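anyone else get weird line breaks when pasting these?? whatever heres mine. first is seq + tokens for prot A
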Amino acid sequence: MSWARLAAIIRKELIQVRRDRLTLALVVGIPVVELLMFGYALNAVTDHIATVVYDESGTASSREFARAFENSTYFSLVRWVSSRDEAMRAIDSGEAKVALVIPPDFGDRTIAGRLTSAQLIVDGSDPSVAQTALFSGGLVAQAQSGVVTLETLARAGAGAPRGGIELRPVVLYNPRMVSVMFMVPGLIGIILQMQAVLLTALAVVRERERGTLEQLIVSPVRPAELMLGKVLPNVVLCLVSTGLTLLVARVLFGIVPRGSLLDLYVLTLPFLFGSLGIGLAISVVARNQAQALQMTMFTLLPSILLSGFLYAREGMPAIFQAIGLFIPMTYYLQVLRGVIVKGVGLEVLWPQFAALSLFAVLVMTVSLVRFRKTIE
């Protein structure tokens, strides 16, 4: 073995790595991003659960009871609603995971030292959040019940009725809190995004590697026509794939969408165009299929970790929650779990549809501009 020849080969490889700045950035950047997200963003302990309050009593004792939930740090009161229907709409849309309903006689019964009750309505589509809400809600109610009992005894003496507060929980959508009802819809979204991004990213890069992209460039085909010609067939393929995954979910896991399939497909379209636009953007930057694969995995990582696919977003630091708002998967997961698990449709999920549509328009526009500049 010649050490001189070996050193020359090593030096040549290092020069190639240094010149391939995109691959070098991915190799260095992906571990750093993974460490940051796994170390800071993922939190198995769920707290600050989004909660709405419907206070029919409107008394000081009812407001104190509601504030006790927020002071526990397990609940975050996003707003007070004026009706039970409004509270249910907040849960249906994903704005809140919990609704605390306080009856009109809550204050009078508390002052009189009589046993009173409140209702805790919990979104069961995420079992881990639901279990935390049920357990911590019970502890808060128990602690507040003790406070009310002591106040009654101090006010009326030892012979006064003990009273107290009873919390009555109701779990919606997934009463048994089965984990597959949470995971399978999320997996459908992750699989769909990975498939859509890879289809367009590899298709264009493969054309470049084979030299056929140059033939298309010198033809009368315009950049926008070429881009749409790459995107539209893949939209059809991804819609067919969506139907197949729903069929598999029904056969293997017994998960039947409770909402309209038409609504699901309509809400899926902007997500597909956005994902395919990401693939086009990758294809403009990537020089070969290996780079395209690396960049696809890089874009998939935040979608898995910051969208609420694995862990509730409420438990993440504020900065990562803010970053998650710019990830389409955050909204598409709400769509999937809303239609499949909750049975709601476009009339409730239109904010998610608007966000996905805006992202699709932006990413397709940027991809078209970059694609035109690249081929010209």
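and prot B, same format (seq, then tokens)
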Amino acid sequence: MKRFIVTLMLAATLSTAVAQEQTKPEGYKFTDGTLVKSNSVKNQFRSGTCWCYSALSFIEEEIMRAGGESLDLSEMWIVRNIYFEKAVKYVRLHGALNFAVGGAAHDVIEGIKRYGIVPEEVYRGLNYGTELPHFNEVDAVLKAYVDAIIKAPNKKLTTAWQAGLNGILDAYFGKMPETFTYNGKEYTPHSFAASLPVDMNNYVSVSSYTHHPFYEQFVIEVPDNWMWGTVYNLPMEEMMGVLDNALKGGYSVMWAADVSEKGFNRTKAIGVIPEDNIDNMSGTDAERWGSMTEKERQEALYSFDKPGREKKITQQMRQEAFDNYETTDDHGMVIHGTATDQCGNLYYKVKNSWGVRPPYEGYYYFSRPFVEYKTMSFMVNKNAIPKGTRKALGL
């Protein structure tokens, strides 16, 4: 009898387990498609330097694509020098400039042109007692310093203020070497940059907004564009065509995007733009949506338990989101491939700079509608742009 009861209990337990497995959310299941060769995932930690980590990672992948070795270049070399450039411009404009650690992809290109580049092992830039970037103090100190300079207590700027600025930067980041040895050869930062199989003049940024003419350049109006760098303006579909053509040709893409959307889930590493308009639904989807409360709809939209219907993005939607501050320039990453979910929907595989973390070892998947909607701009090798578009842009 006891044996019979135990058997019944085991059967019931097994039945419950099977039932729970059957009701468990399906989740997202991605199959990678075309992938560009990539190097390691980095960690910007507590610093607003995604622009540098992403753009420099993009350059590292360009070096590998051109047949060079896998390099780990110094992000802090760029950050330190760009902070100096930004401070000088901030003072020159009497403080009428966004002085913060944020930046853009072209900051890295211009930084390499002006200051060269060095390997990570030569200049780690962590001269303040931490193993990863931690910028709370240095950001505050630098801002206080340049604001004090602008007040000009002596009624004019002294000849010492830039030396003082460099003193602060050297204290936090370390003094910059004039020469260094790498793989048994001596370099300067400029000669090392010149030794790399990439040309900084080959990189351009592309965007898509209607408040400027298409096929022309414009200064994208975001606070972090302190350098007033320009982007080439294309219709949305043509912009996406540049992205697809680049990946197909083996080029990665540096992506400046907005990740403040509810459709971006950090822990699940997914970005989507769910359809929430009942007028765009039909059949059982429309019936189910119409019977829900607003709270139930929000929970269903952003549960991320399985792929769902997404919005069809238009040029007007992009523009309205930008004009209304719903799309902001808040993060930089590297797009280095494509993928599909279990329903066949297209995604882009993206390398982030938040360290190696689950569920995809520091990589993220963003749907095509998300990229269409939330792309501020992206940087690409101009040779990756389709010939017709390149001609229209005068490249």
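btw re prot B: The chain has one domain: 26-273+310-393. The radius of gyration is 25 Å.
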